[in-house]
Amino acid sequence: MIKKDYIAEKENKNKSTQNGILVLVIFILLFFIVIFRIAVRSDLSNTYFNEAPTGKDAFVIAKDYIRPTLDTKDVRFSDDFQYTKQPDSVFLMKSYFEEKGRNAEKVDTHFVITLKYKGGANLNDHSWAVISFQEQ
Fold first, then answer.
1. Are residues 66 and 93 in the same domain?
2. Which terminus of the chain is more solvent-facing, meaning fewer CB atoms within 10 Å of its CB: N or C?
């Protein structure tokens, strides 16, 4: 009778051990699936880790700041621009825009704008501040 209890107890321990191992394996698989999904999805990287703005980002913001200061709304910005990135996320942008003059003639206006990136979304106007703006 004592042997039967010992064998029954040993079988009981084996079942609980096997159940514990099964639960552990399931949790490990779920963990790897979640990590793999996060690593594969590229759109999560922009949500969690904001990269430093590029010159192209700064040029988009520069156009957004300059457009309201102009008298005419018929303005076409050049795709060519030069920029230098200074320390502390300060961008110096040089480019030009084309606008129609009073006699319907096209006039090129060159400009220099200095923008400071304050942090946040790269293409959000509230993440930037204009330090200076000059038309040439």
1. yes
2. N
DSSP state, residue 68? G
Give pTM, 2 decimals: 0.62
> What does the alpha-carbon distance between residue 95 and residue 76 come to, in Å, rounded to a whole number?
12
Q: Which domain holds residue 66?
A: 55-135
Residue type for position 6: Y
- Give the pLDDT band of residue 32 (cuts 50, 70, 90): very high
Both 24 and 87 in one domain: the answer is no
- Is residue 96 exposed (0-12), middle (13-18) or buried (19+ Cβ within 10 Å)? middle
Contact 69, 133 (CB under 8 A): yes
Q: What's the CA angle centered on 86, arms 80 and 92, to 5 degrees?
A: 35
**Residue 8 dihedral angles phi and psi, to the nearest 5°:** -65, -40
Whether the pLDDT of residue 34 is over 80: the answer is yes
